Every structure is written in C-alpha cells, then in structure tokens.
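[Q] Does anyone have a clean structure-token version of this?
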Amino acid sequence: MTESKKGFEVRNRPDWLYNSLPYVYIVIGLVVVFGLGTSNLIGVFSGILLISTGGVVVTMRATHRHELARLRAEFAVNEREEDEGVRRDDEDERRKIERRQNERRKSSDDSAPP
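[A] Here you go.
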C-alpha cells in the first residue's frame, strides 16, 4: 500500500525493518570494505558510502526524534497553560456576570418603594 504525503510516496513498512535499516547499511558496508580489502577500489568506495549513509540516517533520525520529543513537551506545556488561562478567563467572566447581577438587584431594591 502507498500513501501520498506532500508529494512523496510512503510505503508502510514494519517498524523493526524501518528502524534496523541504517544498521544493516553499516554492517553491509563493513563486510564489503573488509571482505574485498583494498584490491577493489570501487567496492571499497561503495562500502564506505554505505557506512557513511547508515551513519547519516542514524544521526538524522536521532536528531528528529529529539526535536519531536521537545516539540511535544513544549506543546503539552502550552496547551496546559492555555487551558489554565481559559479557566481563569471563564472564572473572571463568571465573576463579572455575578457582579452585574448583584448591582442590578441592589439598584432594583433601592428603587423599590418601602
């Protein structure tokens, strides 16, 4: 199955496969580099590219997860503060209404004949 997300095709993969792919790149790169030795420069270059690609992907994912966790925590704090602000505003509004009602009662009691 594919979904379109901002113009890119996203394939649903199991989490274990998605999370392990960069490490697979690194292991395959190490096998290629040490398996071929220095006799095949193109193979060694390919292995180094696989190792560096795996490292970059691991770093990017860690950075993204850290940033996502920070944003979620910040959003939760902002949402909590907003909820408290709304409650405060509601409480203030309720007090204003009660004050107006009390003023009307007093004014109607004052104007009523004894």
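[Q] Thanks! Anything notable?
[A] The longest strand covers residues 2-5.
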